[in-house]
Amino acid sequence: xxxxxxxxxxxxxxxxxxxKYIHPYxxxxxxxxxxxxxxxxxxxxxxxxxxxxxTTFEEIQKLDVGDQDVALLKVAHFICERSILSDPYYYGPxxxxxxxxxxxxxxxxxxxxxxxxxxxxxxxxxxPDNFSxxxxxxxxxxxxxxxxxxxxxxxxxxxxxxxxxxxHKGYEII
Length: 174
Fold this sequence. Notes:
- The chain is an all-alpha fold.
- The chain has helices spanning 11-32, 34-51, 53-60, 65-81, 101-113, 117-124, 134-137, 142-159, 170-173.
- Helix 2 packs parallel to helix 4 (65-81) and helix 5 runs parallel beside helix 8 (142-159).
- The model is unreliable at 1-6 (pLDDT under 50).
């Protein structure tokens, strides 16, 4: 069984547990020990996302800049694999997941929040593999494929090259 996959936990039950126990505990932890809060949040960020994506993004903003991209990648991995990041996996170019159009848009929205070029590349590079190829080509309409391509191009044009890290055209070219 994959954790948080929804196959054994009713989504409404998960939201209730989150609202009643986890979120209040995390608020208290954040006030009392921000360092432990940060570490704990990074470990459970997929649970936050599943129960409340808006709150998740607000909480991610409280992390150090470097940890924000880590949290976003953990959420992206969960969307793709429906498992947590500590499970064995390969996540990068050539990774194929059975994603819906809406899930791909969620991944693109996560990528749009990223700051680091290598984290951005890690996420963006998985998307084309999941809507190209003959079997997947029929899964998405032409309009959906064009929309996905446009959104990816917009992110690449806006965020690459990353002026705060090594300045090169490498990720932009890929």
